[in-house]
C-alpha cells in the first residue's frame, strides 16, 4: 500500500465555547536549526504551520504536556483544504 504525502493542520476548539467562536490553529516554533521547540495557537488559518502526520502528532503531544489548560480544548488534525 502506497503512503500518500498528505499535509495537515492542527485545529483547536474550546469545549466551553461550543460552536460559538472560531477555532484556533497551531503554529509550530522551531530553532534556527529546524529543531522542534513548541507550539502556539493562533487565529489565522493562513499563518498556521502545515505539517506531516508525524509532526502533527508531535505537536499535539507537546501541547498536551506543556499547556496547562489543554484539557479545556478539543484538538484535531485536519487535512489542508478542509
Describe this structure in words.
With 82 residues, the protein is an alpha+beta fold. The chain has one domain (8-79). Helix content is 17%, strand content 34%. It is built from one helix and four strands. The protein has one helix at residues 53-66, and strands at 8-14, 24-30, 36-42, 73-79. A four-stranded antiparallel β-sheet has the order 3-2-1-4, with helices on one face. β2 and β3 form a beta hairpin. The radius of gyration is 13 Å and the shape is globular. The mean pLDDT is 89.
Oligomeric state as shown? single chain
Intertermini distance:
24 Å
Which value, in Å, is the CA radius of gyration? Answer: 13 Å
Are there runs of 5+ residues with pLDDT below 50, and where? Answer: none
Helix and strand composition category: alpha+beta
Shape: globular
Q: Report strand %.
A: 25-35%
The overall pLDDT average reads 89
Largest sheet: 4 strands, antiparallel
Topology:
Elements: E1 8-14, E2 24-30, E3 36-42, H1 53-66, E4 73-79
Fill in the keyword field for this structure.
4 strands; globular; four-stranded antiparallel sheet; 34% strand; single chain; alpha+beta; 17% helix; 82 residues
